What we know:
Blueprint: H1 11-23, H2 28-41, H3 46-52, H4 57-70, H5 89-99, H6 112-121, H7 130-138
Helix pairs in contact: 1-2, 2-4, 3-4, 6-7
Amino acid sequence: MNNKHHLNLADSEVSSLTSLVSGGHLPAKVFRRATALLELARGKSLHEVAATLNTTYQTVATWRDNYVARGLECLHDRARSGRPVVIDGEQRAKITALACSTPPEGHARWSLRLLADKAVELKYCEAVSHNAVKEILKKTNCSRI
């Protein structure tokens, strides 16, 4: 067998992975990654591990490379970047409270556009669209709009 496919795990890592795999309640992707690392440490090749886990050679190679780079943290996905929160919980609460308050003079009730304009005017947020206000209020049971 070719040694470049093998993985050297510390005894503590082997015992951690073994107890993790035999523990039971584990997400499938974590189980597969842990099993792959254990099999590679036992001397199996990437092709053999891929066949055992019914995955591709490249996937097993990626798991191995992630282990080399990150250690056992590779069992779990990294946090993914996403769109940052534009309107936080406190701002949402203020907009909701505003919607449940008495509408301005000359209006029988709040409109979404009126709420959006008032929220910006009161500096609850820099900008908010009427559609964003609609999504915020959809999660409440305020019936004043």
